[in-house]
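Hi all, posting the design record for the shared folder.

TITLE: backbone redesign
STEP: 1 of 1
STRUCTURE INPUT:
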């Protein structure tokens, strides 16, 4: 991106991502994410160990506060079916996000491709600020390109509108699978 500024993962990126006043929207398209803070929890999930969700309390508290203040946090997750291990982990964990007020929706990758949605993750804040996330080959977040071109921001607001229209809320998406399948995949509704 020519009209952008790179911010490294860390405090500067977090400050940007939390700078919204009304809405924060994220399109997530990766099958895997390697967040060092999640690694232990992903492994426990994959081995069927009991879940200790206390590590999510700060994030859930932030989402709940923002939601009670009238702000919205939304995500659309593009998922490959059959699911990757990380997608299964995220589907299970998102029950906490949605309980705190975050709107998380799911759309199958083939449908997202038909609709022409981007093939990269991005955040859109208040429909006028955005960044495109950058990951390395091991799925670790490197940072983001903060986009300054208003036309690119408007284009991504359009992508958001398409994704939200066709993606299913978490409960509806999980409702398309039978309970036995969800149990086998360690997914709690």
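Okay, here is what came back for every position:
SEQUENCE:
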């Amino acid at each position: 991106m020519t009209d952008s500024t790179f911010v490294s993962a860390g405090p500067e990126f977090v400050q940007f991502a939390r700078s919204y006043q009304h809405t924060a929207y994220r399109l997530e398209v990766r099958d895997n994410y390697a967040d060092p803070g999640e690694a232990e929890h992903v492994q426990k999930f994959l081995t069927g160990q009991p879940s200790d969700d206390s590590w999510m309390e700060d994030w859930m508290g932030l989402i709940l506060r923002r939601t009670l203040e009238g702000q919205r946090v939304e995500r659309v997750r593009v998922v490959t079916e059959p699911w990757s291990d990380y997608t299964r982990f995220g589907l299970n964990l998102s029950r906490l996000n949605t309980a705190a007020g975050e709107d998380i929706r799911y759309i199958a990758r083939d449908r997202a491709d038909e609709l022409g949605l981007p093939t990269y993750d991005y955040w859109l804040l208040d429909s006028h600020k955005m960044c495109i996330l950058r990951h390395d080959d091991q799925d670790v977040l490197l940072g983001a390109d903060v986009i300054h071109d208003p036309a690119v921001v408007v284009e991504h607001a359009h992508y958001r509108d398409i994704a939200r229209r066709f993606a299913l809320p978490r409960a509806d998406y999980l409702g398309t699978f039978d309970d036995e399948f969800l149990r086998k995949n360690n997914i709690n509704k």
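COMMENT: The helical segments are 11-17, 39-46, 57-68, 85-100, 109-115, 150-166, 170-174, 179-184.
Let me know if anyone wants the other runs.
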